[in-house]
Design a protein that fits this description.
214 residues; alpha+beta; Maf protein; eight-stranded mixed β-sheet; elongated
Length: 214
């Protein structure tokens, strides 16, 4: 499949504290992203961003995901300040069906509606990833796309899944790493991207920013 993988800018660091000595800060409260970074062996702190995540008129899904990732990283970096300098990671994952961006469900009924649209079809998962040094505030970013193919499912299956509560805080109303896996036939592209953070691309951005890790 063709994967969107756009890179913008560099998160370069200024003279002073070496990038390898800087603390990595995850600008997200997502337990999935925390787990993925920990699995990759990275030490980091968590400082969730608080931004307006609404799409702008005419904004493409790719632009939306990348913009929100940059805004999250910048918001946290500005809040933390330049001293001591840190490297901040922001990310935003969206589910796209046809031309519609499917957000998080507002309640169980909405979760059933969203998942009901996805089953039996293929959809795209886009994650924008941004890295910024808190003393430079110049984000480097990229967008990664995966394709998810779901099997057909009955309304009873969907209702039972939603009743467990898992999909209520997930874009598209399912969790690829949890019980929602039962609906997935296959994933084309990065699986960690579908979970919430494309690890290969994220680690590349962090290396480009000067962070050193095994």
């Amino acid at each position: 499949m063709e994967r969107v993988d756009r890179t913008r800018g560099r998160a370069g660091v200024s003279e002073g504290t070496p990038a390898s000595d800087r603390t990595l800060v995850l600008g997200s409260s997502s337990p999935r992203r925390r787990e993925l970074l920990a699995r990759a062996g990275l030490a980091f702190e968590v400082a969730p961003a608080d931004i307006d995540e609404r799409a702008r008129p005419g904004e493409s899904p790719e632009t939306l995901a990348e913009r929100l990732a940059c805004e999250k990283a910048l918001a946290v970096a500005q809040r933390l300040g330049a001293t001591p300098p840190r490297i901040v990671l922001g990310a935003d994952t969206i589910v796209v069906l046809d031309r519609d961006v499917l957000g998080k469900p507002v309640d169980t009924r909405d979760a059933e509606r969203l998942l009901g649209r996805l089953v039996g079809r293929a959809h795209r998962v886009l994650t924008g990833v941004a890295v910024v040094a808190s003393d430079r505030l110049r984000p480097a970013s990229r967008v990664v796309e995966s394709r998810v193919v779901m099997r057909s499912a009955t309304s009873d299956e969907i209702s039972r899944y939603v009743a467990g509560g898992e999909p209520l805080d997930k874009a598209g109303a399912y969790a690829a790493q949890g019980a929602g896996r039962r609906f997935i036939e296959r994933i084309e592209g990065s699986e960690s991207n579908v979970i919430g953070l494309p690890l290969e691309e994220t680690l590349a951005l962090l290396r480009d920013a000067g962070l050193r890790f095994e």
